[in-house]
Amino acid sequence: ERHLLGLKQLEREEIASILDRAAYWESQTSKVTPRLEGKFVANMFFENSTRTRFSFEVAEKRLGAQVLNFSAAASSVEKGESIYDTVRTLESMGIDAGVIRMKPIGLLAELAEKIKVPLINAGDGNNEHPTQALLDLYTMKKTFGEIKGLTVSIIGDILHSRVARSNLWGLQKLGANVQFCAPDNMQAPELAEHAPYVSVEEALQADVVMMLRVQLERHDKGFIRSAEEYREHYGLTVERAARMKPHAVIMHPAPVNRGVEIDDELVEHEKSKIFAQMGNGVPIRMAVIERALS
Ligand code: CP
């Protein structure tokens, strides 16, 4: 089984081995290693993406694979073709692995039973985004040396966040303490038994303050009263960031709503790991693609 559906099902040792292999790939000086020469990988994005799609493409090209990019908007999905039929179509053409992002929850597990080539989850609804959490874990490991014992606050739209869920499962397996902070209407009730909800002031005292994007596209109208009000109560403002611990870091999966969940000046602040996270996405995805095809 070389699928990567989520971190909830992944063993601690498997996570550690992906992080180690990413460090190996990061240390390589040559840009392209023909490790996956002759392999075809399809990136199938049924939802938009910049970071995940391009860092998978860079990772695949750095490993010497042939890359096929599929985007739903320019495909027969527009004529009503299903996700299953689309993936089966690409499989029938001989792809060796597929990276997939889509809205429905639960469909990926069904696909993984029917599709023979390995599938890698690039984000499914609000369920999981395992490679994002892996690159977040990798960033924390590089910053602090070890993840065990770290306190990580995840602040914002937990309800709609696949990033929060994958980070929760991954961080807990590696021995970190996870706490959430969110307004009542952005809390995920089913996660309350796994991690406590704390106040903003308490959340600021963590080693890692991970801000989440307010997912305007997943909210019904009226769910968020105003960006200003959100910033005032839950945003990482310059004033709040000044109350963080001296060694603590700011993370965010991006894209960022500057001036809503995080102040503009903090995005490239010395405490911020936001662009480092994006860079770390490449070696992590190299390790994940290699694992799928080995
Ligand atoms: N962090 C992340 O998944 O970004 P994209 O939606 O641009 O891929």
UniProtKB/TrEMBL annotation:
Q: Which residues form the signal peptide?
A: none
The chemistry this enzyme catalyses reads:
carbamoyl phosphate + L-aspartate = N-carbamoyl-L-aspartate + phosphate + H(+)
**EC annotation?**
2.1.3.2
Sample GO molecular function, one term: aspartate carbamoyltransferase activity
Which principal EC class is assigned to this enzyme?
Answer: transferase
Q: Which UniProt keywords apply?
A: Pyrimidine biosynthesis, Transferase
Which positions in this protein are listed as binding L-aspartate?
79, 162, 213
Q: Does the keyword NADP apply?
A: no
Gene Ontology cellular-component terms for this entry are: cytosol
Any one GO BP annotation for this protein: amino acid metabolic process
Pathway terms, separated by semicolons? Pyrimidine metabolism; UMP biosynthesis via de novo pathway; (S)-dihydroorotate from bicarbonate: step 2/3
Which segments constitute the Aspartate/ornithine carbamoyltransferase Asp/Orn-binding domain? 148-289
- The positions annotated for binding carbamoyl phosphate are 51-52, 101, 129, 132, 254-255
Q: Name one Pfam family in it.
A: OTCace
Domain Aspartate/ornithine carbamoyltransferase carbamoyl-P binding residues, every copy = 2-141
Q: Which family does it belong to?
A: Belongs to the aspartate/ornithine carbamoyltransferase superfamily. ATCase family.
Which HAMAP family does the annotation name? Asp_carb_tr
Under PANTHER family, the record lists: ASPARTATE CARBAMOYLTRANSFERASE (PTHR45753:SF6), ORNITHINE CARBAMOYLTRANSFERASE, MITOCHONDRIAL (PTHR45753)
The record's note on quaternary structure and interaction partners says: Heterododecamer (2C3:3R2) of six catalytic PyrB chains organized as two trimers (C3), and six regulatory PyrI chains organized as three dimers (R2).
Question: What is the recorded function of this protein according to its Swiss-Prot or TrEMBL entry?
Answer: Catalyzes the condensation of carbamoyl phosphate and aspartate to form carbamoyl aspartate and inorganic phosphate, the committed step in the de novo pyrimidine nucleotide biosynthesis pathway.
What's the protein here called? Aspartate carbamoyltransferase
